[in-house]
Design a protein that fits this description.
Layout (H helix, E strand, L loop, with lengths): L1 H34 L1 H6 L4 H5 L13 H30 L19 H14 L10 H21 L7 H33 L3 H49 L1
Helix pairs in contact: 1-4, 1-7, 4-7, 6-8, 7-8
Length: 251
């Protein structure tokens, strides 16, 4: 089992396997909880106890090695699907105006401020093959920004320095994939809530809305953290490249 995890690598473990496991285990626990919510509320007399019911989710734990292996295989499969969904979410919605790597020269993107851009401009122009940037053509400027970032990241990888910053990239992708988990959990809760509403089970309906709010808040937190870590990663790659170039000049 240890050799299996070593072969998979940290990226696959945290961005594919872990979100996939959360989806399967958490989704099953949440489904069982929502399906029996009416009965659970009716047998819980106190208001305080009802508020804390969500923390009493029953988590199914594999009982033998075969169940564990089956869980890992299914988690990796579903994690891959969730990871692809997160990529679609990022490109079609979250970063429709350009990812941080494509907006290095846009101070509004929050990657580099105006003073840092001015200081780094000679270095960035060198990466752009000595050409000035196409500031009057936004789409071309984004392509140039992605090109120079790719060159910086490739140079850092060649110098075996990328491991110092890969953790930020892993956390970013993990947060985004987990965000998809909570989006799907929220959709499932909405389906149950509509059924409770149709059946005129008002107390159960309002309690399900409270759970839905919790899922949405958790999803928004993950989304915010993911975006922040992506900016941190891009920013650190830029300054790591600047530092490497400074060392080479000194040598």
């Amino acid at each position: 089992m240890e050799n299996l995890f070593q072969k998979m690598g940290l990226y696959d473990i945290w961005t594919v396997l872990f979100p996939g496991t959360i989806f399967l285990v958490g989704g099953r626990a949440l489904y069982d909880f929502m399906a029996s919510l009416d009965q659970i509320l009716s047998t819980t007399p106190h208001a305080v106890g009802k508020i804390g019911l969500i923390f009493q989710l029953h988590i199914a734990i594999p009982t033998d090695i075969y169940e564990l292996l089956a869980l890992l295989v299914l988690s990796y499969f579903w994690g891959g699907i969730l990871h692809e969904l997160s990529s679609i979410m990022k490109h079609k919605w979250l970063y429709k105006n350009g990812e941080p790597s494509a907006r290095l020269l846009d101070e509004k993107a929050g990657i580099l401020n105006k003073q840092e851009i001015c200081r780094l401009m000679p270095l960035l122009k060198t990466l752009n093959n000595g050409r000035d940037f196409s500031e009057s053509e936004p789409d071309k400027l984004k392509d140039e920004s992605k090109y120079i970032f790719h060159r910086m990241n490739k140079h850092i990888q060649e110098k075996k320095k990328s491991g110092d910053y890969v953790k930020l990239n892993i956390i970013y992708n993990m947060c985004m994939t987990l965000c998809v988990d909570f989006i799907l959990f929220s959709l499932g809760i909405i389906a149950f809530s509509l059924e409770f509403l149709i059946q005129q089970k008002c107390k159960v309906f309002f309690y399900s809305l409270m759970i839905l709010t919790m899922m949405i808040v958790l999803g928004m937190i993950l989304l915010s953290r993911g975006k922040r870590y992506y900016r941190y990663w891009v920013r650190n790659i830029v300054f790591a490249y600047e530092e490497l170039c400074g060392r080479n000049d000194n040598n």
